[in-house]
Write a structure and sequence with these properties.
By secondary structure, the chain is an alpha+beta fold. The chain has three domains: 10-96, no CATH class; 102-210, Band 7 domain (Tetrahydropterin Synthase, Chain A, 2-Layer Sandwich), CATH 3.30.479.30; 215-274. It is 48% helix and 21% strand. It is built from seven helices and ten strands. The strands form three sheets. Strands 7, 8, 9 and 10 form a four-stranded antiparallel sheet that branches. The protein has a three-stranded antiparallel sheet with strand order 1-5-2. Strand 8 and strand 9 (119-130) form a beta hairpin. Helix 1 (12-36) runs antiparallel to helix 2, helix 4 packs across helix 5 and helix 6 packs antiparallel against helix 7.
Length: 290
């Protein structure tokens, strides 16, 4: 694998000053050769002027958070990262590579199947940057497109590893554990993109929903699950309240109840506490045994 090799490059302003002086000198020599009709001086001056022009082609600018990958006849020479005006061999090819932090969102209509086989739609926001310019340029054909394709592949694999939702507290799900899912997605993407000299800084699920063909059925399922969970909480609380009521009645000797009357009282209290609508009271004008 080709690894990045950083080089400093020659200071551009200093080299530019030397080339300007050499250019002025070459132009003056050409003028003198023309005036004196000296062929040898003219040829030497013309060659010198041509050489100065060729050397000036070696000047190039490096912006902040940018790298220039230098090649000589196909061979990798190094990467200039320091910003400013630089000079290098004019026969070097100088390829621009951005080192800035970039982000993108994958296709919002990416349809995948979760681990249970349910069709879902997912998209993610990915934050990344190039950390090795040599790998980014020489290991993959187009590192920008490679990042996007790898991100979609990582999302598909992630979806096939977890269910969309689950009732088991010990089981991770795409909807219920966003932090763990984001960490897994980041690790999955980094494993794929290391070869391209790219570092994944962050990745988050931005859109997660059931596919339209099963959305209504899954919505009813979620509603039923929510109703069952709510009922369980209500029953647990009601039983606790009934237990507390019987215990306090017995402890404070407010009233003595046999087992049948306790059962009737428990039934009435549970109806009152668990009912979805307001109950209608029945006033007993006799004793509790009537």
């Amino acid at each position: 694998m080709i690894r990045e090799k950083e080089i400093k490059g020659v200071s551009g302003p200093g080299m530019l000053s030397v080339l300007i002086v050499a250019l002025l000198g070459s132009v003056t020599s050409v003028g003198l050769a023309i005036n004196s009709a000296n062929g040898w001086l003219g040829a030497a001056s013309a060659l010198g002027l041509l050489g100065v022009i060729v050397l000036m082609a070696g000047l190039f600018m490096v912006q902040p958070n940018e790298g220039r990958v230098l090649q000589l006849f196909g061979d990798y020479v190094g990467t200039v990262r320091s910003s400013g005006l630089k000079w290098a061999n004019p026969f070097y090819t100088k390829r621009h590579v951005s080192l800035k932090i970039r982000n993108f969102e994958t296709s919002s209509r990416l349809k995948v199947n979760d681990v249970d086989g349910n069709p879902i739609e997912m998209s993610a926001v990915v934050v990344w940057k190039v950390v090795d310019t040599a790998e980014a340029v020489f290991q993959v054909d187009n590192y920008d497109n490679f990042v996007k394709v790898s991100a979609e592949a990582a999302i598909r694999k992630l979806a096939q590893s977890y269910p969309y939702d689950t009732d088991e507290e010990s089981r991770l799900s795409l909807r219920g554990n966003p932090k763990e899912i984001a960490d897994h997605l980041k690790a999955e993407m980094q494993e794929r993109l290391t070869v391209a000299g790219v570092e994944v800084l962050d990745s988050r699920i931005s859109n997660l929903s059931y596919a339209p063909e099963i959305a209504q059925a899954m919505l009813r399922r979620q509603q039923a699950t929510a109703v069952i969970a709510a009922r369980q909480k209500i029953v647990e609380g009601s039983v606790g309240m009934v237990e507390m009521a019987l215990e306090r009645l017995s402890k404070q000797n407010i009233v003595r109840l046999d087992e049948d009357r306790k059962a009737a009282m428990v039934s009435n209290l549970l109806v009152v506490l668990c009912s979805e609508s307001a109950v209608q009271p029945v006033i007993n004008t006799g004793t509790i045994y009537q």
